[in-house]
Amino acid sequence: MFQTHLKLSKFTNYVPTKYSNNQHNSNSVINLMFLRPESLKLDSHSIHLDWKLILDYALLTVNITIFEEYIQTKKYTIVKNSKEENNFINNLIKTIKRLNMENIQNKEALEHIMQTFAECIKRIWYKHSKIVNITKYFKVWWDDNCYRDLEKYRQTKRIDNWK
What we know:
The chain has 163 residues and is α+β, with helices and mostly antiparallel strands. It has two domains: 1-68, no CATH class; 74-162. It is 34% helix and 13% strand. It is built from four helices and seven strands. The strands form three sheets. Strands 2-4-5 form a three-stranded mixed sheet, with no helix packed on it. The protein has a two-stranded antiparallel ribbon with strand order 1-3. Strands 6-7 form a two-stranded antiparallel ribbon.
């Protein structure tokens, strides 16, 4: 059995939605809207008689709330196979070797060690990473050499510098 998880929406104003051009036929409710019943925001719709204009039916609308969303435009990164990556890994290895795990007697001691370890990783990450702008052209392989070569091309406009 196919389930859509939809149900007939409740009207905010109960009026006909189909208007007959023939005076012998009655107006009717023919336009319906189905929405998700679990949604508190999408459980009803409106019928707009004033938008009917030359049509023989009224338009139905539902208001959808759009919440403001934070879109990250910068991030910390370490270029693969770079000096910074090697330093990050070496510092991480030293930190792991220095962790004292000899006296883990209970859950709280283990959580304390793991919290300390997480803080060390964060500190080492920020020490060796750099902030980059995220754009639709953002590529992880783009490095300082690419910037240098692009600038060289822009100055010379020579095709061999573009390649």
